[in-house]
Amino acid sequence: MRFIMMGSGGVGGYFGARLAAAGHGVGFVARGAHLAAMKAHGLRVLSPRGDVTVAPVAAAADPATLGPADAIFVAVKLGDLEDVLGRIAPAVGPATTVISLQNGVEAEDRLVAAFGPGRVAGGVAYIAAAVEAPGTIRHIGTNQRIEIGTLPRGEAVPVATIVAALAEAGIDAEVAADIRLAIWRKFVFLVALAATTTLTGRTIGAIRADPQARALFTDLMAEAAAVGRARGIRLPDDIVADRLAFTDTLPETMTSSMAHDAAAGRPLEVDWLSGAVVRMGREAGVPTPANNAVAAILALRPGPARQASSDVPQGACLSP
């Protein structure tokens, strides 16, 4: 199959490299030093699941030069999505499927509005990976899984074929029976992980060991779950307890991509995480005081907290 990774950071770079190493055609969209290094030396992935180097690599700043493709994975920051919609349009052919591997719960609706339900599938990526140096992706831990599922009116989308290609590349991939539920299951956890690691500058090990931080983590998840249920998502009654138990199994050093962005002075995705919980909670009449505090505090953070920068790739520190 022919893939385009719209964003070649921890998420797009890692999964794209695995697909390319398995013999699939993969085009990588990147920019700056990362793009230059990929063109000069290829793309290298360092991983406990096995290192891989893709060289030469098809990489460009403009996705239009890489298409059309069978599938386009969108793996940039959520703030860049509106710009990305127009840029990937020339690479969306009559048989192309567009799949977001972004954080948050709002990307799929925007993709469907742009390309129609017959061109979009829902996706969730679970991996801890980031750009260690230009041209090099560092994978932390062994999680590297993707769930893809059919969205309403998207029954013709070849979800099973795409999942089979991912599995062939050694990626833990599966077809999600309810992709909206899978997206929200990740979102509930990620909202808390991103908020607490960014606010404190500490890793998950320190947060879960501190009673007050652990309580905040729990409250953030509970609010997100309540909002999801109010929007018709069939989250199980024990979702918060389940995600908290999972949190206790994570490597102590794990953090979030938003915490990395904060440390580097980059724009934050808070508007699409805690900010989204607050916004959707207000619409549904669900109180969200903990997430409201997070959104308000991070909105005052010095630097470009809200202004997105096009093609900033997405890294991830996520759960199964």
Tell me the layout of helices and strands.
Blueprint lengths: L1 E5 L3 H12 L3 E5 L2 H10 L1 E4 L5 E3 L3 E3 L8 E6 L6 H8 L3 E9 L6 H9 L4 E14 L2 E14 L9 H10 L3 E4 L3 H22 L3 H6 L1 H20 L8 H9 L9 H7 L10 H11 L4 H11 L16 E2 L3
Parallel strand pairs: 1-2, 1-6, 2-5, 3-9, 6-7, 7-8, 9-10
Antiparallel strand pairs: 3-4, 8-9, 8-11
Helix pairs in contact: 6-8, 6-10, 8-9, 8-11, 11-12
Q: Could you explain how this protein is built, in words?
A:
Strand 7 (92-100), helix 4 (107-115) and strand 8 (120-133) form a beta-alpha-beta unit. Helix content is 42%, strand content 22%. Strands 1, 2, 3, 4, 5, 6, 7, 8, 9, 10 and 11 form an eleven-stranded mixed sheet that branches. The relative contact order is 0.16. By secondary structure, it is an alpha/beta fold. It is built from twelve helices and eleven strands. It folds into two domains: 2-179, 3-Layer(aba) Sandwich (Rossmann fold), CATH 3.40.50; 182-299, N-(1-d-carboxylethyl)-l-norvaline Dehydrogenase, domain 2 (Orthogonal Bundle), CATH 1.10.1040.
Features:
alpha/beta, globular, 42% helix, 11 strands, N-(1-d-carboxylethyl)-l-norvaline Dehydrogenase, domain 2, 320 residues, Rossmann fold, 11-stranded mixed sheet, 22% strand
**Overall shape:** globular
Q: What about the largest sheet? A: 11 strands, mixed
Bin the helical content: 40-55%
Helix/strand structural class: alpha/beta
What is the strand content? 15-25%
Q: Which fold name corresponds to the CATH topology of the largest domain?
A: Rossmann fold
**Annotation, overall tally of beta strands:** 11
Number of helices: 12
